From TrEMBL:
SUPFAM superfamilies documented for this protein: beta-beta-alpha zinc fingers, Hermes dimerisation domain, Ribonuclease H-like
A single GO BP: post-embryonic development
Gene3D superfamilies: Zinc finger, BED domain-containing
Region called Disordered, residue ranges: 31-95
Record's protein name: BED-type domain-containing protein
Pfam families, sorted: zf-BED (PF02892)
Keywords: Metal-binding, Nucleus, Transcription, Transcription regulation, Zinc, Zinc-finger
GO molecular function annotations of the record: DNA binding; zinc ion binding
Bias (Basic and acidic residues): 44-63
UniProt feature, compositional bias: Low complexity: 66-78
BED-type domain: residues covered: 1-46
GO cellular component: nucleus
Compartment(s) of residence: Nucleus
Length: 321
């Protein structure tokens, strides 16, 4: 077997150790030349002419680790292999200890810190989401606008209050405003009553500045319950433009006599602060009770029969003849 050149720098002792002939330091061999080569490499590098081929596998592994920090670059990632400070002194350890030292090397990746979620950028989105929920909740601006629009739809189109609970209407609102919850019929009715109170005050203030009025009135009977209703509309000029306002449709609880109708009309005008002296004309159909109510309450000179009703009456008489 070929003898390693390392033995020319050491002499054996009986206890398994060797003595360096250069510095007289005792080195433990453990049956191989790994510690001998390490001693020469670190303590007497200028006197060592041992090439890498004379080192065994474990010693080359230690040499590759170097006992110090080395840096590798792979795919743009810096890898540092760090071992303990034992590399500063001769490794008086066995092969097993050397392998353990290399395998325990710490791998450090000093790369850029991983990107963290930009919470400041996400905050406005979260805030906006909560703001949208609030806007469509009761008391929010969008909730009030949609509810007002529904009340307007019911009033202007003469729709029943239960229309808001219809399947088709609910589906329509869900498609237009998914976050909006349609109020029930009772809530809608209360909303319209509140709107009426607000608008009636506005109209009453407007009528205060009117000098003269003409009025039209008629009675309508609901056939299902045989209930009569009296409607009254006022007409006036404002800035040379004709204005018409229906100030109410009121249920008649008694027989439709001329006297009772006259009392109801007087009470309605009083509730709106309309002076009867400002009434210039009262247009009604030609029914005997209506004619009597106007002539006895407001004066015969203020009553004007409805031209359409009068014309229709003449046509009926002509056909009868």
């Amino acid at each position: 077997m070929k003898r390693s050149k390392l033995w020319s720098y050491f002499k054996k002792e009986g206890d398994g150790n060797v003595i360096c002939t250069i510095c007289n330091k005792r080195v433990k061999t453990s049956g191989n030349t790994s510690n001998l080569a390490s001693h020469m490499k670190h303590k007497h590098p200028e006197d060592c002419d041992v090439d890498d081929k004379s080192l065994d596998k474990s010693q080359r592994k230690l040499t590759e680790c170097g006992g110090t920090s080395s840096s590798l670059s792979r795919s743009g990632v810096s890898v540092n292999l760090q071992t303990s400070d034992e590399s500063a002194k001769p490794p008086e350890t066995s092969v097993d200890t050397v392998e353990a030292s290399c395998s325990s090397a710490v791998v450090v990746f000093p790369t850029t810190k991983p990107a963290t979620p930009n919470t400041s950028a996400n905050t406005p989105k979260i805030k906006q989401a909560f703001e949208n929920v609030y806007q469509y909740s009761k008391g929010g601006a969008k909730y009030d606008r949609i509810t007002d629009a529904i009340a307007y739809f019911i009033a202007v189109d003469n729709r029943p209050f239960y229309a808001v609970e219809g399947k088709g209407f609910q589906h329509l609102i869900k498609e237009l405003a998914p976050l909006y919850k349609v109020p029930c019929r009772e809530t809608t009715k209360a909303k319209i009553d509140k709107k009426y109170d607000t608008l009636s005050k506005f109209v009453a203030d407007k009528l205060k500045n009117v000098d003269y009025f003409s009025l039209t009135t008629d009675i309508w009977t609901e056939t299902l319950t045989n209930t009569g209703y009296l409607g009254l509309t006022v007409h006036f000029l404002q800035q040379n433009e004709l204005q018409s306002v229906t100030i109410g449709v009121f249920e008649l609880e008694e027989s439709h006599t001329g006297e009772y109708i006259g009392q109801q009309l007087t009470g309605i005008l009083r509730s709106w602060n309309i002076d009867t002296e400002k009434v210039m004309a009262f247009v009604t159909d030609s029914g005997a009770n209506m004619v009597k109510a106007i002539r006895e309450t407001f004066g015969a000179h203020k009553h004007i029969p409805c031209f359409a009703q009068k014309n229709l009456s003449h046509k009926k008489n002509f056909r009868t003849e």
